[in-house]
Amino acid sequence: MSVPAATLELLAPARNLACGIAAIDHGADAVYIGGPAFGARAAAGNTPADIAALAAHAHRYGARVLVALNTILKDEELEPARRIAWQAFEAGADALILQDMGLLELDLPPIQLHASTQTDNRTPEKVRFLEQVGFSQVVLARELSLAEIRAIAAQTSAVLEFFVHGALCVSYSGQCTLSHAYTGRSANRGECSQMCRLPYTLADGDGRVLARDKHLLSLKDNDQGANLRALIDVGVRSFKIEGRLKDLAYVKNVTAHYRRLLDALLADDPRYRAASSGTCAFTFEPQPEKTFNRGATDYFVKARQADIAAFDTPKFAGAPIGEVVATGDNWFDVSGDVRLNNGDGLSYFDAAQELAGLRINRADGRRLFVAALPAGLVVGTRLYRNRDLAFERLLQKKSAERRIGVSLRLAETPEGFVLHLSDEDGIGASATLVHAKEPAQNAERAPASLRDGLGKLGDTIFVATNVALELSQPWFLPAARLNALRRAAVEQLEAARLTAYARPPRAAAVEPPPAYPAEALDYLGNVFNGKARAFYARHGVRLIADAYECNRETGEVALMVTRHCLRYSFNLCPKQVKGLRPEPLSLRHGDETLRLEFDCKRCEMRVIGRLRGKRKLLLSVQ
Fold it and tell me: What percent of the chain has pLDDT over 70?
């Protein structure tokens, strides 16, 4: 008896309906999108009507729509959040992504639950507990190694979801209160001010500067494209692209890129299959390096490495194209052989090592004309392209088609003809045509003409993989009648696919309630309402502190917990350099100082500070 193939899911972000539809069309097996509120991206809300439209489109391909409801909630927000959960369910959503455990104490709809990465999922015990209380899918911490993921997979049957591309939070998700402490904008509430992207000065205990005005907490972007096979082997089944604030071009380009990578792996391994239906064709060559990124790292998947940070800039510099070799009043010549075009955007680091940019008005070979030559652009300056206008224009148009393979079979009935359709998922439908049987005048050409007419599925989501004729002799069918028969059968197949689609069921929680892996929760437990407190108490937690957002903490605490280690980055790690006596380190931005603590046993760094009574709004980086 053969074992059914396990499904692998490509999960793409959707800022809005247009991005969600594009993600599906470019190969996503599932899309995650925010609802009207409480979605961990305050600037990316969507109406129930838009969620319904997205679900209707996704379900045609057997793809899923996941709605993010993953902020921590005030007591008075619980009821509005519960209503949004029901609205998402009634709109056709397939799952809710949650952070606040207080929601599990409410009357939620019978919809599958996924544990957000904000719930800090990095141990087998935590993931097993989440499965036991009713979560079917768990978003793992981005910091995990292959060995750590394998250990978790051995202890749970929940689907393991892992970020494979996009921006990296430097802190363990859900364990960062730096933004709230200094600006009042909580990352746990979807309002992060991105203080990790600001420039800082690193100093030792004697005040000696080790790095000045560098983006020391800013990481490169995640890129696990080369590690997909390894991630599959250790148990990851959902491959998530970050980017619910990213634009349409990013969604198209990156989704198409990972669709191709996963399809290549699926073609070589019959143990797995795609989680949804259809095959994609693209009008462009996916190149993720051409859309917003801060460089690439595969982070800790293959253990700690030095080159994970983007110290120079948190912005998109782009790909290197050469350097300036000559300048004029409104022009400069560039080395290299990369073709440049009118309207392209270039970037470079100026004398102060700040990233600057310009737009090419006209490209004449290697001579580039601009409105005015920037003062900092001198011979020897290295140049990067961060806007490829020709590539962007490809993505502004229709750039993908996703088709489901279907076999067609035309047969006779006593009254005329019947057309049977069967798609790649084994779903079938048929339509009949009452029509007199008239012998074809050209018996040799008639079968080919019938096959050609039946196979014209270009304006549908289907593509003909086989057209069979089961006829006693070549019959004549007018093109209009044949087209009507085909359209009727296709409509029936679309309806049959929607009827066959079943939303995944809600997993039942284990009874009696399982014990939480710890008996105490500090402020990083993110307990922000009475229902969350009741949840943890019901699961055996005895000491439950309020979330940091309750503003109860008065002393210095860890505002950020991270595996990114500045000792390691600057070759000051006692594990690296034998006999080294580690110095205390601190970060300064303006007149604010943050102390650094290091837990070498866990290989973690903690950024220590206190809640500001009179918060100062620091410039955030977009």
Answer: 98
Q: What is the pLDDT of residue 1?
A: 54
Q: Cα separation of 182 and 616, whole Å? A: 6
Q: Domains in the chain, ordered, with CATH?
A: 6-168+222-276 (3.20.20.70), 172-213+553-622 (no CATH), 315-396 (2.40.10.170), 405-500 (no CATH)
Burial class (CB in 10 A: 0-12, 13-18, 19+), 279: middle
Whether the link from the prior residue into 512 is cis, omega within 30° of 0, is yes
Enumerate the β-bridge partners of residue 558.
608
Predicted pLDDT at 2: 62
DSSP string, 332-393: EEE-S-----TT-EEEEE-TTS-EEEEE-SEEETTEEE-SS--TT--TT-EEEEEE-HHHHH
Sign of the CA dihedral running 300, 303, 304, 309: negative
Per the listing, tokens 């800790």 go with 300
Contact 331, 376 (CB under 8 A): no
Where is 252: in which H helix or E strand? helix 248-268
pLDDT digits (tens, 9 = 90+) for 367-424: 999 999 998 899 999 999 999 999 999 999 999 999 999 999 999 999 999 999 999 9
Q: Which structure tokens are listed for 259?
A: 């669709």
Q: How far apart are the first and last CA of the chain?
A: 54
